[in-house]
């Protein structure tokens, strides 16, 4: 755990979101 | 006169000159309104991404969300996750779908978009009317501006309110929207910078660097009240329970999937440009929302009687006066540009969507074409003033939390429009005219009932439940009316097949 429960959720949640966004953008927005 | 007051006045003066100059530049570049609305295409994905970020985030989020962390502690960080997860997701998924379906209409209003999609005046006028909820959005920006003037210039809240309302209305009247995309991009950079600065102030305001600083804050808050460090806080009006958190994610997703927000994305022809634009937006947004941590820092350093003053008081504490003044100006700028856009939406609703496209053609008011054009112009002018006055009155008594107040408006608009919008995009076979009407009414009525009975504390969650009811109503009616053999508006189904 980093600092407290919420900060841990925040840290992993943010990382997860950013990775997901990158994957979605790379797979969904390919050049025509 | 204290240093910060002096810098604020100088800053305001310079800012107004800059706005005038940028407005002039924009005016020179775009001679007609239609030139302006397609200018997006020549501007490139980076500028557009920044402009989108500036439109999406407003003064009231900059001031309001840190108020939540100040008052209710770490649980308020959920809003950070909704902004970094749900809203980009809404944008990415819905913009992609909208693009596939070739519905990149430009300079659209929500009412126009849905009215045309379903070929229904009821949907057009109904959507136009629910767009009037946006008045809460404008009012929230006024309140944010008033607190800035109050905290940084030391003038009373009500005087600050008059100042910001006059500034914003004057900005709209002098054609501030011409400067929109340029000022938005600059603003987004400055606000992102401010977010980062506020976040890293942990290094000099608290002992022990990043981890040490947060441990210090966490321990101090836990000593005050253990709810302040929990993942939900029963005292909070936002994240008090797991359903409230889920509701916040749903409504953020819904909010970012409204076409008038992402039509700039659709204007870009190459999907790689869209990708670039969304990346720029996400990076800007990420830096920007770091400001939310300022509320946590404020909770252990300053003591304010209004939660919306927390971030401003903290900035005065943590930074030299000139930085505080720049922050003030940037947020005022954000209030002006965001409000400007909404004012345009509101006057379009009244003059175009309701009067010009419904009352006149239906013969409800008998005006000749020529006369109608003149009256529409007058209506759009007066409606700015009327909306300004109503918004002003709404926040004469400062709201308990600007961050919550703004969602009364956003949730209201979403409650009635999201059903017809999302089902229309993702399940076109169910998107019948009857279904759209039922969804609109069911969404708005359920939202109003939730508000009136005060049965959901969070206006974000209230909006989310109403949106879900609207979508469910749309799908059920869609199934029934489809089986009845009523005409399905299948232009989009065809587009899908192509």
Describe the structure.
Chain A has one helix spanning 5-28. The model of chain A has no long low-confidence stretch (mean pLDDT 91). Chain A is rod-shaped, with a radius of gyration of 14 Å. By secondary structure, chain A is mainly alpha-helical. In chain B, α6 (78-100) runs parallel beside α14 (242-256) and α9 runs antiparallel to α21. The longest helix of chain B is centred in the C-terminal third of the chain and has 39 residues, at 321-359. Classes of the chains: A mainly alpha (32), B mainly alpha (498).
What does the largest sheet of chain B look like?
none
Roughly what percent helix of chain A? Answer: over 70%
Biggest chain pair interface: A-B, 23 and 29 residues
The rough form of chain A would be described as rod-shaped
How much of the sequence of chain B is in beta strands? under 5%
- How many distinct beta strands of chain A? 0
Order of helices and strands of chain B: HHHHHHHHHHHHHHHHHHHHHHHH
The biggest beta sheet of chain A is recorded as: none
Q: Kindly report how far apart the N and C termini of chain B lie.
A: 67 Å
Count of β-strands of chain B: 0
Mean pLDDT of chain B, as a whole number? 85
Q: Characterize the quaternary organization of these chains.
A: heterodimer
Protein structure class of chain A: mainly alpha
């Amino acid at each position: 755990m980093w600092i407290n429960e919420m900060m841990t959720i925040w840290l992993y949640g943010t990382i997860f979101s950013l990775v997901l966004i990158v994957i979605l953008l790379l797979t969904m927005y390919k050049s025509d | 006169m204290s240093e910060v007051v002096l810098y604020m006045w100088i800053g305001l003066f310079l800012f107004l000159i800059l706005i005038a100059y940028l407005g002039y530049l924009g005016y020179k570049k775009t001679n007609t309104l239609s030139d302006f609305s397609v200018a997006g295409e020549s501007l490139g994905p980076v500028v557009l991404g920044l402009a989108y970020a500036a439109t999406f985030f407003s003064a009231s989020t900059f001031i309001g969300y840190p108020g939540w962390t100040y008052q209710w502690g770490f649980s308020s960080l959920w809003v950070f996750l909704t902004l970094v997860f749900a809203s980009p997701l809404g944008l990415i998924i819905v913009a992609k779908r909208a693009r596939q379906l070739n519905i990149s209409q430009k300079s659209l209003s929500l009412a126009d978009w849905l009215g045309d999609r379903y070929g229904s005046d009821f949907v057009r006028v109904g959507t136009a009317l629910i767009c009037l909820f946006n008045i809460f959005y404008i009012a929230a920006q006024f309140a944010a501006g008033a607190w800035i003037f109050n905290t940084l210039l030391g003038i009373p809240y009500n005087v600050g309110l008059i100042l910001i309302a006059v500034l914003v209305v004057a900005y709209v009247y002098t054609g501030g929207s011409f400067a929109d995309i340029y000022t938005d991009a600059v603003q987004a950079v400055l606000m992102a910078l401010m977010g980062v600065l506020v976040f890293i102030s942990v290094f000099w305001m608290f002992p022990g660097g990043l981890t040490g600083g947060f441990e210090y804050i966490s321990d101090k808050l836990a000593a005050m009240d253990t709810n302040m460090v929990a993942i939900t806080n029963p005292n909070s009006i936002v994240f008090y329970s797991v359903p409230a958190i889920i509701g916040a994610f749903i409504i953020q997703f819904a909010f970012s999937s409204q076409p008038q927000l992402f039509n700039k994305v659709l204007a870009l022809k190459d999907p790689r440009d869209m990708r670039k634009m969304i990346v720029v937006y996400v990076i800007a947004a990420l830096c920007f929302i770091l400001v939310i941590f300022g509320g946590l820092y404020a909770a252990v350093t300053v003591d304010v009687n209004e939660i919306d003053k927390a971030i401003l008081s903290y900035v005065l504490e943590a930074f030299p006066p000139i930085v505080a003044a720049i922050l003030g100006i940037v947020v005022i700028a954000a209030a002006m540009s965001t409000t400007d856009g909404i004012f345009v939406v509101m006057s379009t609703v009244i003059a175009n969507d309701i009067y010009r496209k419904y009352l006149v053609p239906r013969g409800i008011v008998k005006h000749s074409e020529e006369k109608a054009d003149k009256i529409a112009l007058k209506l759009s002018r007066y409606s700015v003033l009327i909306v300004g006055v109503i918004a002003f009155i709404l926040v004469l008594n400062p709201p308990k939390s600007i961050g919550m107040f703004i969602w009364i408006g956003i949730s209201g608009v979403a409650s009635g429009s999201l059903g017809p919008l999302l089902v229309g995009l993702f399940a076109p076979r169910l998107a019948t005219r009857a279904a759209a009407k039922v969804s609109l009414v069911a969404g708005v009525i359920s939202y109003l009932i939730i508000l009136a009975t005060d049965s959901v504390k969070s206006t974000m969650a209230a909006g989310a439940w109403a949106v879900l009811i609207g979508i469910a109503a749309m799908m059920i009616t869609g199934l029934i009316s489809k089986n009845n053999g009523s005409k399905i508006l299948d232009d989009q189904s065809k587009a899908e097949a192509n």
